[in-house]
Design goal:
- The chain is of the alpha+beta class and 241 residues long.
- Helices cover 17% and strands 30% of the residues.
- The chain has 5 helices and 12 strands.
- The protein is flat and about 95 Å long.
C-alpha cells in the first residue's frame, strides 16, 4: 500500500496491483456448455511443474502454462477469443470494482484474538484470563447454540471487498491502483470484477464520483424575516403599493 494525491488535492490511501496481462484459455458458450464464461490464466510457470491434462490444455490454446486459472462469467463472450490477452486497460480511473482474495492465515487462535473477547482479570489470583468460560446455560445444557463464538482456525478464507474506486491505471506496466486495502498477503492472487452495485457508466457511479453539493442552510433568524415580509405583503390593501 501507498498513498496518492487526487486532482482535488485530497490524499487517499491506495493499493497497487499488478493486473495482467491475463490470457484467455477457454471460451464457454450456451450452445456448448449451457452458460457464457471465459477461463483466464495469469503468471507463467515452468512446464516441468504442469501435469499432463493441464499441459495439453495450455498447448491446445497456444499459451504458456499459468499458475493461476480462474473462470469468470461475462455478459458477451463474442468479444473474447482463445489466446487473447486481457489487459488492465479494461478498467479506467473512476470505475468501481469488487476484489476477492484469500485472507492471511493466522492458524488456531483463542477467542480473545479471534472474536475480540474482553477476557478476565489480569491478577494472579483470578484463575480466569483468556479461557472461553461457559458456552451454554438454561434447559439446553447438552447443546451448543449454532454460531457460538469459539476458539478455532482464523483467517485463510475468501473475502470480497466491494465498491473500491479505481484511482489510476497504468497500461504500460499493467498496474491498477485502487483506493483502500484489499484482502490477502503480498504477492497473493486476487480476482477483480466490475462492481455489482456501481457498474461502469451507471447513474449511481456518476453520482458517487460527482456528488451534488449540499443544500445551503439559511442563517439563524432568516425564516422569521421571510415570514414577516410575507405577512406584511398579505396585509396590504389591494391596488396600493
Amino acid at each position: 500500500m501507498t498513498q496518492l494525491f487526487k486532482e482535488n488535492g485530497r490524499l487517499v490511501p491506495v493499493t497497487v496491483i499488478q493486473a495482467g496481462p491475463c490470457s484467455v484459455l477457454q471460451v464457454k458458450t450456451k450452445q456448448s456448455d449451457g452458460y457464457e464464461a471465459i477461463q483466464i490464466g495469469f503468471d507463467d510457470k515452468r512446464e516441468s511443474l504442469v501435469n499432463s491434462p493441464d499441459s495439453g490444455r495450455f498447448k491446445k490454446a497456444g499459451i504458456k502454462p499459468k499458475r493461476f486459472v480462474k473462470e469468470l462469467r461475462v455478459k458477451d463472450v463474442v468479444a473474447y477469443k482463445v489466446g487473447q490477452d486481457v489487459k488492465v486497460d479494461v478498467f479506467a480511473a473512476g470505475d468501481y470494482v469488487d476484489i476477492s482474495g484469500t485472507s492471511i492465515g493466522r492458524g488456531f487462535q483463542g477467542g480473545v484474538k479471534r472474536w475480540g473477547w474482553k477476557g478476565g482479570d489480569d491478577g494472579h489470583g483470578s484463575m480466569f484470563h483468556r479461557a472461553p468460560g461457559s458456552i451454554q446455560s438454561g434447559p439446553r445444557l447438552t447443546h451448543v447454540t449454532r454460531g457460538k463464538h469459539m476458539p478455532g482456525h482464523m483467517g485463510n478464507r475468501t473475502i470480497t471487498i466491494t465498491d473500491l474506486e479505481v484511482i489510476k491505471v497504468d497500461p504500460e506496466k499493467n498496474l491498477l491502483v485502487v483506493k483502500g486495502a484489499i484482502p490477502g498477503a503480498k504477492n497473493s492472487y486476487i480476482v477483480i470484477k466490475e462492481s455489482g452495485k456501481f457498474p461502469k457508466g451507471s447513474e449511481k457511479a456518476k453520482r458517487r464520483l460527482h456528488p451534488l453539493p449540499p443544500p445551503k442552510r439559511k442563517k439563524e433568524g432568516a425564516w422569521k424575516k421571510e415570514a414577516g415580509l410575507k405577512k406584511a405583503a398579505a396585509a396590504k390593501p389591494a391596488g396600493k403599493k
